[in-house]
Amino acid sequence: MPTRTKFVILMHPHEFKRIKANTGRLTHLCLADSELHIGETFDGHEAVQALINDPKNYPVLLYPGKGAVDLSTVQPSDPQLSTLNAQLESRRLVVFLLDATWRLARPMLRLSASLQRLPCIMFSNAAPSRYLIKKQPEPGCLSTLEATHELLLALDRSGLDHYALPKQMIDLFMRMQEIQITRTAENRRLGIRRHALKTPRAKASVMPPPRPKRHRIFPKGPAQSPTPKA
Questions:
Q1: How many Å apart are CA 142 and CA 131, to the nearest integer?
Q2: Stretch 214-228: mean pLDDT
Q3: What SS3 state is found at 31?
């Protein structure tokens, strides 16, 4: 599928080695103008640095947080959108995406100062994740393919790109999951196991100290009062 925007998927080695049917690779196959690079740090990555430093490109990072331009809520008169449009009059938008779990994506960004310096963009009010075979850590988390789909919708709404086939990637994503579910069921019917069962360890006599609660990926919204029943 052609796009005005160039997408650069930065895949953590864990995704490449252990999760062969990952959505980052499927996203790359769906988008004509996309690249996929594997690594944990990219300050010394020749191809990535060439894209960042090319004066014909306007590189940004898809990463939510304070200071990120929310393309889902920005208005045509917003100075942020005006600035972005001005940059894209003579430069190509290049979006970098981190393809990893949230636990691994944070270190990837922390280890790459060149990525930290990029302007950040984000989207909001996205559809819930359609990932059937993997549980997301919390509401608002999406697979790389779903995040790219939502970003393209936001780019299209803001006039920064034209999303010609909005159902293509999602349909392929659902088809990929259907195939995996079917194969898993078939393997179970035949008694085929992906990993051999390990001998269970004896329980420790002393309970380990509780792990500290991790910070939420997305801020929790204000509590809503229950809707009164009629």
A1: 8
A2: 48
A3: coil
Q: Quickly tell me which residue has 């045509």 as its tokens.
A: 76
pLDDT in tens, 55-96: 999 999 999 988 899 999 988 888 888 889 999 999 999 999
Pairing mode, strands 6-11 and 57-62: unpaired
What does the pLDDT read at residue 143? 87
Give 50's contacts (C-beta < 8 A, 6+ positions apart).
none
Cβ-proximal residues to 34 (8 Å cutoff; 6+ apart), any chain = 6, 7, 8, 9, 27, 28
CA torsion 79→83→32→124, rounded to 10°? Answer: -20
- Report strand pairing: 120-122 vs 69-70: parallel
Q: Which of 147-169 are b and which e, b meaning 16 or more Cβ less than 10 Å from the residue's Cβ?
A: bbbbbbbbbbebebbebeeeeeb
149 touches 169 (CB < 8 A): yes
Rg (CA), the chain: 20
Reported for 127-130, long-range contacts at CB under 8 A and 24+ positions apart, including other chains, are 130/170, 130/173, 130/174
Residues facing 6 on adjacent strands: 94
Nearest-angstrom CA–CA distance, 86 and 53: 18
Q: Which residue from 30, 215, 82, 212 is spatially nearest to 137, judged by alpha carbons?
A: 215
Which stretches within 158-219 are classed as H helix?
A: 168-190
Where does the pLDDT of residue 155 fall: very low under 50, low under 70, confident under 90, or very high at 90 and above? very high
CA atoms of 107 and 105, how far apart (whole Å): 6
